Amino acid sequence: MTEWTGQADWAREAWGSIVNKVARTSKRIGDGFPHASVNGQYKLEPASWWTAGFWPGLLWLIYRDTKDESLRLLAESCERQLDQVIMDYYKLDHDIGFMWTLTSVARYKLLGADDSKRRALLAANLLAARFNVQGGYIRAWNPWREGERNEGWAIIDCMMNLPLLHWAAKTTGDPRYKHIAVRHADTVLEHFIRPDGSVNHIVIFDPETGEKVGVNGGQGYAPESAWSRGTAWALYGMSLSHMHTGSEAYLNAAKRVAHFFIANLPEDHVPHWDFRLPEDVPAYRDSSAGACAACGLLLLADQVGGREAALYRRAGENILHSLYANYGAWETEAEEGLILHGTSHFPEQKNIDVPLIYGDYYFAEGIARLNGSRELFW
Questions:
Q1: What 8-state DSSP symbol labels residue 160?
Q2: Where are the beta strands (DSSP E) in the chain?
Q3: Integer Cα distance of 303 and 280 in angstroms
Q4: Are residues 57 and 377 in contact, defined by beta-carbon separation less than 8 angstroms?
Q5: Contact status, residue 71 vs residue 370, Cβ threshold 8 Å
Q6: Contact, 75 vs 67, CB < 8 A?
Q7: With the C-alpha atoms ordered 260, 266, 270, 275, is the resulting torsion angle positive or negative?
Q8: Which domains does the chain have, with CATH numbers?
């Protein structure tokens, strides 16, 4: 294992590696929608898949720095393809935030494009419409199959969709969007984040009364376990909610989750896919959870002062450095992913120990932040 030496040069080197590799892989991926790497090549999914925003988001991160017009054109094409997803409607779920924050909001922030503003506001309205007033939560998914009833399901991932609502509130001056984001985050405080800082993935409510009726392990090992990417969603999501609202409750929740995450990291600082696994269950790493958590830790460091800030920043740097030095596929022509060893969905045995596009995105966002970039698409 390569240890971090404390020199800043590695972060600049890492950014150069990201830029160079994406320049190569974009020739094949183009304006497609990669999700997981299969035998070294990213499988392209339909535009309606929840990860559709991460590749164009990665392109916008690089464009912001390099002004590479070829990447801008690809990202804009991805965004236009999402128009049909809005019109199809039936496949839209809470991941509207992931999809249009990293496409339309990103382009609007970078270029001031009015068509992107319009798309993002439409997406924000559709996301807000999923809010259950009785339960104070944004409904996660639509039925996956005929007869399925999941209108009472909410998931921790949605914390990362709330920034779209905060952006819409600030852009329009209409606080309705913010009110929904705050109510959902408050529900997460009450029902998702446990006293020790671990997190439930799925909480089930009675959609008529709003009462909590149970929890589901989801992509974690079990309902009472600690899925590491869910922990990362909570860490970064609560830090972002604090950034948008100034709420001390959100800041304290982010700290609690951060301490749990840091305390449970293995020696190389990259988490296993679940922090509470029986000894007979394979403990694959999830590099995507590490990359997302690192972004949250760096933001958290900027929100607190003194030694506490140094703790979070150092933890975020340690994760990103390990991902770069020990998990990177920088010179591997046979692998399109940037970082190896992601775990998408172990319980369903899907995309295990492979690069994941959201891991690549968050890794690049974290490295950009280490190199001085402070503007977030979130």
A1: G
A2: 34-38, 41-44, 131-132, 137-138, 153-155, 202-205, 212-216, 342-345, 350-354
A3: 40
A4: yes
A5: no
A6: no
A7: negative
A8: 9-370 (1.50.10.10)
DSSP 8-state assignment for residue 66: H
Give the contacts of 165 (CB within 8 A, at least 6 positions apart): 97, 124, 127, 128, 177, 178, 180, 181
Alpha helices (runs of H) in 67-105, residue ranges in sequence order: 69-88, 96-100
CB neighbours of residue 20 within 10 Å = 12
Residue 34 makes CB contacts below 8 A (sequence gap 6+) with 42, 43, 44, 45, 51, 54, 55, 336, 357
Residue 59, amino acid = L
Mean pLDDT by 10 residues, the chain (378 residues): 57 98 98 98 98 99 98 98 96 97 98 98 98 98 88 98 98 98 98 98 98 97 98 98 98 98 98 98 98 98 94 98 98 96 98 98 98 96
The answer, as to whether pTM is greater than 0.90, is yes
319 Ramachandran zone, left/alpha/beta (phi>0; psi -120 to 50)? alpha
CA–CA distance, 361 with 58 (Å, rounded to integer): 5
Distance CA 142, CA 352 (A): 25
**Active site positions, annotated:** 95, 157
- Conformational region of residue 30, where left means phi above 0, alpha means psi within -120 to 50, and beta covers everything else: left
Q: Describe the crossing of helices 357-370 and 9-29 by its angle, rounded to 10 degrees.
A: 140
- CA–CA gap between residue 294 and residue 309 (Å, rounded): 13
Rounded to 5°, angle at Cα 261 from 230 and 364:
70
For residue 44, give the 3-state DSSP assignment. Answer: strand
CB-based contacts of 374, cutoff 8 Å, min separation 6: 302
Distance CA 319, CA 296 (A): 11
The pLDDT tens digits for 262-306 are 999 999 999 999 999 999 999 999 999 999 999 999 999 999 988
Q: At what angle do helices 176-191 and 248-263 cross, to 10 degrees?
A: 40
Residue with tokens 């009675």: 206
* CA pair distance 94, 71, nearest whole angstrom: 27
Question: Could you say which DSSP state residue 3 is in?
Answer: P
Please report the pLDDT score of residue 294 as a whole number: 99
Q: How far apart are CA 74 and CA 52, in angstroms?
A: 13
Whether residue 223 contacts residue 148, with contact meaning beta carbons closer than 8 Å, is answered with: no
